[in-house]
Each structure stands twice: as structure tokens, then as C-alpha cells.
Specification:
Strand order of the largest sheet: 1-2
CATH architecture: Orthogonal Bundle
Number of domains: 1
Number of helices: 11
Number of strands: 2
CATH class: Mainly Alpha
Order of helices and strands: HHHHEEHHHHHHH
CATH topology: ABC transporter involved in vitamin B12 uptake, BtuC
Largest sheet: 2 strands, antiparallel
Oligomer: single chain
Shape: globular
Structural class: mainly alpha
Helix content: over 70%
């Protein structure tokens, strides 16, 4: 029983990790807590549902479409709205992103109503057993793709010139100006990347959870806890912290009941803030703009 719980928690933790990376990057690079992040996850889920129900496109194949569409949306919102808001007051971005979240969710409700939909490809009910532990195929696929997306993001940030520009801007946006880097353009790219990862997470979540305008709310708590636990701006930290978050939730639900999942996670959140504010892999200067 405990082994089954651990496996379930770890497999779901991969999704929590990839759902939090974009949130962490935006926070780390710009110092902005983007409350529209869960709305991007919701849009990704509806892209998967729409393409599956209308054209029969497998939700795994629609991930690139979600990534491209959400990158454009995130880039555009950052360029046209958030960059202008932070020019006046950084705290204003908190209110602005909350407003963007409300607008996106209400547009989704207008288009799709508040009904619940499902995305059930042919393999959705398949599973296999190892040592008495039943492992759903869908969750293994979601875990593997989440890990690959996280790895791709890590390599992008740490092995490319664009990634180095993003990281340098996170460290000191004034210095990078003297090196010919435009911080506002980097902010837009980082926001687009964060939204793209959120869209991919929503696409994957649509295979596991019912699709509704509120599917993104499943990840709001995870985004904060995983980001702080892993370290603001740390991709590898988000992946590991996502696994821990999924494990904590699974064990808490198994031992104390489902209603204690969020309580346990946020107790860890508070403990990390008190003992190691920079998280497992974060640096003190990230997010301090």
C-alpha cells in the first residue's frame, strides 16, 4: 500500500514540477508573481481538448501547438501590458496579472461554459503491474514528458546564449544593458517561455483531470510551494521539488486523509521560508528586483 502511494505521488509530482517551472522563471527573472499562470495552464488544457474532440488529435501530439500558442500569448501580454505596468510600480504587476487571469478564465467560460469535459485517448485506461504496484500508462507518459520538457528548459537556460542572457538579466538588469541586452525583450521571452511551459502542463493535465475553467486552480498551491521549495528561478529545483510535493500530498492523503493534502504542503512551504528562504537550489539574489 505504501509503495503504491509513493509511486502515485512521484508520478504526479512530475506534472507539478513542469507546471511550476514557468511560474518560477518569471518570478526569478522579473521578480513578478504571475497570477495569470494558472490561466495559461487552463488554456493549454482546452487546446488539448478542442483538438482532440474536433479533429481527433492525440493530446500528446498537440503539446507543440499548446507550447507555440501560449508562448505567443505570454510574449504578447508581457510586451503590451506587464512591461508597461512594471515601469510604474512592480507591485502593480500583481494586480495586473490577477486581472489578466480573470479575463482569460471568463473568456474560456464564454467559449466552453463551465461544463466538465474529458480527454480520453485509447491508452487512457491502460496500466501494468510491477511487484504488486499498479502503474497507469498515462501517468508514466505524463511523467516522462514532463521530465523531458524540464530537461529541455534547463538546457535552454544553461547551454544557450539566449539562456545566458535570461540568467544574466535575472542577476542584474542594469549591467546587461551595457552589454547590448534589452531587458524588456528578455522579460517578454521569459514570460513567453513560462506561458509555453504552463500550456504544456495544461495539455498533460487534460489527460489526467477533467477539463474545466478551473483546472488551473489545481496547480496554484503547487506553483508557490514548488517554486519556494526548489528555489526561485531554478529549473532543476522545480523538478525535484515537484516530486517532493507530489510525494508529500500522496503520503498525507494516505495517512491523514485527502483533506490534509494542502495543509501538509503549505506547512512545508512555511518551514522552508523560515529555514532556507532561497530554497533547495535557489540563490538569494533571484527575484530581488
Amino acid at each position: 500500500m505504501i509503495t503504491q502511494t509513493i509511486v502515485n505521488g512521484l508520478l504526479l509530482g512530475g506534472l507539478f514540477g513542469i507546471a511550476s517551472i514557468g511560474f518560477s522563471i518569471v518570478w526569478g527573472v522579473m521578480g513578478v508573481i504571475n497570477l495569470a499562470h494558472t490561466a495559461f495552464i487552463t488554456v493549454g488544457a482546452y487546446i488539448a481538448f478542442s483538438l482532440f474532440s474536433t479533429f481527433g488529435i492525440d493530446p500528446l501530439l498537440s503539446i507543440p501547438i499548446s507550447i507555440i500558442a501560449l508562448f505567443i500569448l505570454g510574449y504578447g501580454i508581457q510586451t503590451l501590458i506587464i512591461n508597461r505596468a512594471t515601469q510604474t510600480n512592480l507591485l502593480l504587476s500583481f494586480v495586473v496579472t490577477f486581472g489578466i487571469d480573470l479575463i482569460i478564465i471568463n473568456v474560456v467560460i464564454l467559449l466552453f461554459t463551465t461544463d466538465f469535459f474529458s480527454v480520453r485517448p485509447s491508452y487512457s485506461g491502460a496500466s501494468f503491474e510491477i511487484g504488486g504496484v499498479v502503474i497507469p500508462v498515462v501517468r508514466v507518459i505524463v511523467f516522462a514528458l514532463a521530465f523531458l520538457l524540464g530537461l529541455g528548459c534547463y538546457l535552454l537556460l544553461n547551454r544557450t546564449r539566449l539562456g545566458q542572457a535570461i540568467m544574466a538579466t535575472a542577476l542584474d538588469r542594469d549591467i546587461v544593458r551595457t552589454m547590448g541586452v534589452n531587458p524588456r525583450r528578455i522579460y517578454a521571452i521569459a514570460a513567453g517561455l513560462g506561458a509555453a511551459l504552463a500550456g504544456a502542463a495544461g495539455n498533460l493535465a487534460a489527460i489526467i483531470y477533467p477539463v474545466s475553467p478551473f483546472i488551473g486552480l489545481k496547480f496554484i498551491g503547487a506553483a508557490f510551494v514548488v517554486t519556494v521549495l526548489g528555489g526561485i528561478g531554478s529549473v532543476e529545483g522545480c523538478i525535484i521539488a515537484g516530486l517532493l510535493y507530489g510525494l508529500i500530498q500522496a503520503l498525507s492523503a494516505s495517512v491523514f486523509g485527502v483533506e490534509t493534502q494542502e495543509i501538509s504542503a503549505f506547512l512545508i512551504f512555511i518551514l522552508i521560508l523560515l529555514l532556507r528562504p532561497q530554497g533547495l537550489f535557489g540563490k538569494r539574489f533571484f527575484g530581488e528586483h
